[in-house]
Structures are given as structure tokens and as C-alpha cells.
Amino acid sequence: MEEMMKEMMKEMMKEMMKKWKLSTAQEAASRDALRFVMEPAKRAGEQYLIWAVTGAGKTEMVFPLVEYVVRRGGRVLLTAPRRDVVLELAPRLAKAFPESEVIALYGGSEHRWEIGEITVATTHQLLRIERCFDLVILDELDAYPYHGNPMLAFAAGRACKARGKMVLLTATPPREQQIAMRQRRLPHAMVPVRYHRHPLPVPRILRYRGLSAALGSGRLPSALRAALDESLQRGAQIFVFVPRIEHVEPLTRLLRRACAHAVDADAVDGTSSRDRDRASRVRRFRSGEIRILVTTTILERGVTIPRSDVYIMDADAALFDEAALVQMAGRAGRSADDPCGRVYYVARSRTDGLTRAVRQIRAMNALARRRGLLIEPAARREANADV
């Protein structure tokens, strides 16, 4: 009987993997996570982590897990710290699982107290949910306001049934999770490659005297101006990240002057969490109307531009830790049409966080290469020639 059950589970897994049409790297991670979900829980609060590079398609990897639990009459929660992630995920899940009830919970949502077969919620909504879900999937566990908030971590764990399972998703796991993985206390899968199978862009470091000095003098260093010119000449849109909101406006003005020979003033703009028109500016950036957007870590996640380069000013600032630097770098190279976007860490000195970020990106590329997941250089040149 036990062998028969194992064979049935094996066939079910094979069927689901075929249905969702995952890449080789995605399928390997999804299969291992599904095996974790299928196994009876040995204790309360069991967790599994999927560490997938930015742009690897984390959401698609959990579809087989969701299907398995819902098929068995269970309830699934997908939760994320940010409301915009919930608003993006809910319709995708409704489309993927048309026969299941999908409910979205966030501040100001239509639903308040209901839960569905599949519930998508911000982590703050979990404070009023207890022991409801057979599977809790936590996306962006490293993001504000979840990361470093023990109250929200407790709420996420409490939302899970006593023998339920929790699957964590992240591109930049916090140090405690990385240590737990190394010590084999946290089962996990790593997805070191994006769907297009090109390596992640490795950041280049540009030295300068600092953003305050540049703003004070009204001039950008020549190496930075040359890099910006190359980005504009190749048709890229440019993210320029700064550590402080106060830097957005003056740097926007400086870039309008410095890049006036290449783009109109209206094509250079800035936004931050204080900007009431942020959504409008992001839309204009997505449409290509804005070529250079100066911003803060508010846009380190969630905005994907097909052909983009990334510049991180004062990359050595204390605010920019390893996770933030990797996330911001992850805005580049996400499209198959432009997989080799450029990333520049513009800094006064090389900090530990900056060094670790570059090391993490290189390590993921090396792992993808060892696993044979990357397009070979000759094929890569042919793919780029077609663009």
C-alpha cells in the first residue's frame, strides 16, 4: 500500500510539473518544494526556502504547490509585505486557478474577514488570522515591513495550521536564513538563473568623491558621464538610485543639465515615497516617456523595464545593505531582449555590504554555470545578435 501511494504521488507530481511548463531550474526547485509539502509534518512550523535570483519567476514555481493543497481540499495563503505585490498576485492566481475562490486582503480591500481556498494578503492582515491555512507561502521575506518585525513573523507562523507547512520565497535571504541553510537546519532550493538563461549582470564599481560633493560642485565625474552616455546611446532606460529622499530633486536637476545633449529635460525625472504623483511617473517610465528616473529604494522591487541600466549613487551608504544592493542590481538584464543590462555601484569606497553583494551575484552565476543552466557563450552571442 505504501509503495502504491508513493507511485501515485510520483505520477501526480509528474503531471503537475508538465502542466505548469516550468524551466529546468524552476522545475527542480518546485519539485523539491512540492516533495516537502507532500510529506507529513513531523513538527509544527516546518519551513522550506526557495532562494531564486531576481527575475527567476518565483511565483510560477509555487503553482504546483498551490494546486496540490487545493486539490486535497486545503487552504493556501500567499502573503507579502507590500500591497502592490498582493494586487499583482491576486489576478494571476485567479487566472491560474479559475475553479478556486481567490480572495485578496489588504488595507482598504473589498473583503475584510473572508478567506478563500486561496487567499492573497499583506502580512499586516495576518494579525487577525489564526490557524487557518494548510500552506503559507511568504514572498519577499526580506522586505520592509516584514523583515526585522517579530510581530509580523509571529503572525505569519500563527496563520498556519498546527501541522501546516510554510514556504519562504526570496532573492536576498537575510543572514539568519543563510546561516540556517549552511547548517542544514532549513531545507531549501536555489534557482541561480533567470528564465532567459543569461548570467546576472555583475556590477561595475565607479569611484567618486560622493554625491554631496557632486551636487555641491554641480558636476558629475567624467567616468560617470561617459557611462551614462553609453547607456543612453544603446537605448536603455536608466534607474538612478540614491540613499536619501533629499537627493532626488537636486540630482534630477543635475542630470537634466549633464544629459541635455542626449535627452530632453522632460525625459529625466525623479520620484520617492513622498511623491504624490509616483504612480504616474512610474507609468511614464514604463512607457518609455521617461528615460532617466532618479529614485530611492521604494523602487528596488516590483518595477520591470525591458531595456534598463542601473546606477546606484553612494552605493557605500549605510542604508544600502547587501540585500538592497542585490535587489537594485536586479532591475537590469531581466528581459530576454536585453539580458546583459549594465549595473554601476558608484561609491567613495568598497564597503562590506558592497563586496558581499558583488560576491553573491558572482556566486549565483558560478552556480548556474556549474549546473549547466546558462546559455553557452556562442549561443549567447547569437541570441544578442538577434535583438
Automatic annotation (TrEMBL):
One of its GO terms (molecular function) is ATP binding. GO terms for biological process: DNA recombination; DNA replication initiation; double-strand break repair. Pfam families: DEAD (PF00270), Helicase_C (PF00271). Residues 219-383 form the Helicase C-terminal domain. Keywords: ATP-binding, DNA-binding, Helicase, Hydrolase, Nucleotide-binding. The keyword Hydrolase applies. Residues 39-191 form the Helicase ATP-binding domain. It comes from the Bacteria. PANTHER family: COMF OPERON PROTEIN 1, PRIMOSOMAL PROTEIN N. This is DNA/RNA helicase. It comes from Insulibacter thermoxylanivorax.
